[in-house]
Amino acid sequence: MNRGNKLLDYVKLLDSSIQVGGFTHSFGMDALIAEGSIRDVADLESFMRCQLHPSIVRLEGMAIKGIYSAADQKDTWRTALIDKLVHVQRTPPDLREHSSAMGKRLIKLAQALHPWIDFRKLEHTLSTYNSVGCLSTVHAWINHHLDIPVEEAVLGYLHSASNACIIEASKALPLESQNIQELLVHLTADLEHEWNTVSASAADEPTQATTTSMKSLFPSFHMLGAGLHEFKA
Questions:
Q1: Most confident by average pLDDT, 9-18, 87-96, 168-177
Q2: How many helices (DSSP H) and strands (DSSP E) are in the chain?
């Protein structure tokens, strides 16, 4: 099976329109709609640009890139550490549980779709270091084993998450089909610009090989919160 077909089959697992799709949470958007903070397409676009995109790019996007680097070096400890960092950073707690549950579901689905991949290695890593297997971690690990370039893996994940939120919002808000299509076009460009900016900024920052810091293990993690910058195993 060629790489294009493998990627196409895998992306189906991330399709939010399918029950088995990975993205079933809305990153807090549903609560904002319920309380009236998001009422129309302009409010939705503001939420996506100012809250959702920066969050998923700096957390999940950079985590996927970090998992690829760890997998290249066969560094299972770093894979588990990045997974834990994503888990604790994803708040509120119910989103953590959703991400973990979806990660486990994705492993089972991908096992059926790609039986030649030895998922025991991933499961052993998660078990050994008492990690959870977040959705973005599992996504990255699978794509790495399918030889999907890291940029495709990152952007595929980010676009799936963004599109899932728009689809969910369209169920609760009076959005016209044309408005949704225009919003998708605008947000696609915005999301890719956000990723390119953050990824380039992280690549430009020097890292110190002599220390085990969040900046060296997980580029851009210093942008997410204080207190874990020099976390050690």
A1: 168-177
A2: 12, 0
Q: Which of 75-89, 137-151, 216-230 has the lowest mean pLDDT?
A: 216-230
Number of neighbouring beta carbons within 10 Å of residue 67: 28
Residues 196-222: b if buried by 16+ CB within 10 A, e if exposed: eebbeebeeeeeeeeeebbbbbbbbbb
pLDDT for position 225: 39
Say which residues have a Cβ less than 8 Å from residue 214's Cβ, sequence separation at least 6. Answer: 85, 221, 222, 228, 229, 230, 231
| Among candidate residues 85, 45, 27, the one with its CA nearest the CA of residue 223 | 85
d(CA 58, CA 63): 8
Residue 15's pLDDT is 56
CA distance 43 to 28: 14
> Counting beta carbons within 10 angstroms of the beta carbon of residue 192, is it exposed (0 to 12), middle (13 to 18) or buried (19 or more)?
middle
Q: Is 86 helix (H, G, I), strand (E, B) or coil?
A: helix
From CA 65, how far away is CA 16, in angstroms rounded? 23
| 147 DSSP assignment | T
Tens digit of each residue's pLDDT (9 = 90 or more) over 172-228: 888 888 888 889 888 999 999 999 999 888 876 554 443 344 454 454 444 443 333
Tokens read off for 1 = 């099976």
